[in-house]
């Protein structure tokens, strides 16, 4: 049974087997969580991402998919990069967002990760409403068959923390 916990703080300061990165499809770093993970993790993460782009992911990583690299200088063994969907009122992309969590857990299982730290995927610059992002994230993790023992949602601010914590009430 997977334990779900919530922490308010900086995901780059977490100690976990795997830290999930809300990446962009280029895998080459960006803003928000992605930029913070690349900065704190150091050049080894970018080097691994460049190798992925030179091999299987020449066009980048598709939305809803996940792939792992080294964690560089982070207190983790791996970074699992997943590309969340941008929110739009014109099209329901909930299944793509749920896929980010399922695919990240699938990769974590392949790696043998037992603790995984997730950010609120798509709830930052990709504009997903926080309460809905929290609902999809928690429901998906609960419904996913995984060997991961602890899923830790690391929320940057109090508003995000409250939205996620409300899912267990």
From TrEMBL:
Q: Which SMART domains match?
A: A1pp
Provide the Macro domain boundaries: 1-169
> From what superkingdom does this record's organism come?
Bacteria
One Pfam family, short name: Macro
The UniProt entry, under CDD domains, shows: Macro_OAADPr_deacetylase (cd02908)
In Swiss-Prot or TrEMBL terms, this protein is called O-acetyl-ADP-ribose deacetylase (Regulator of RNase III)
Organism this protein belongs to: Streptomyces griseochromogenes
């Amino acid at each position: 049974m997977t334990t779900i916990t919530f922490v308010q703080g900086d995901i780059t300061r977490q100690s976990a087997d795997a830290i999930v990165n809300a990446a962009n499809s280029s895998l080459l770093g960006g803003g928000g969580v992605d930029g913070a993970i690349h900065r704190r993790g150091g050049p080894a993460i970018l080097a691994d991402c460049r190798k992925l782009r030179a091999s299987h992911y020449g066009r980048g990583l598709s939305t809803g998919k996940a792939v792992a690299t080294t964690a560089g200088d982070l207190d983790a063994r791996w970074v699992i990069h997943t590309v969340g969907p941008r929110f739009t009122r014109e099209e329901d992309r909930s299944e793509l967002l749920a896929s980010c969590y399922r695919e990240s857990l699938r990769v974590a299982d392949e790696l043998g990760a037992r603790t995984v730290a997730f950010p609120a995927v798509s709830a930052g610059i990709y504009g997903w409403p926080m309460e809905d992002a929290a609902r999809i994230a928690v429901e998906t993790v609960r419904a996913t068959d995984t060997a991961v023992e602890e899923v830790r949602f690391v929320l940057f601010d109090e508003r995000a923390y409250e939205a996620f914590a409300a899912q267990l009430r």
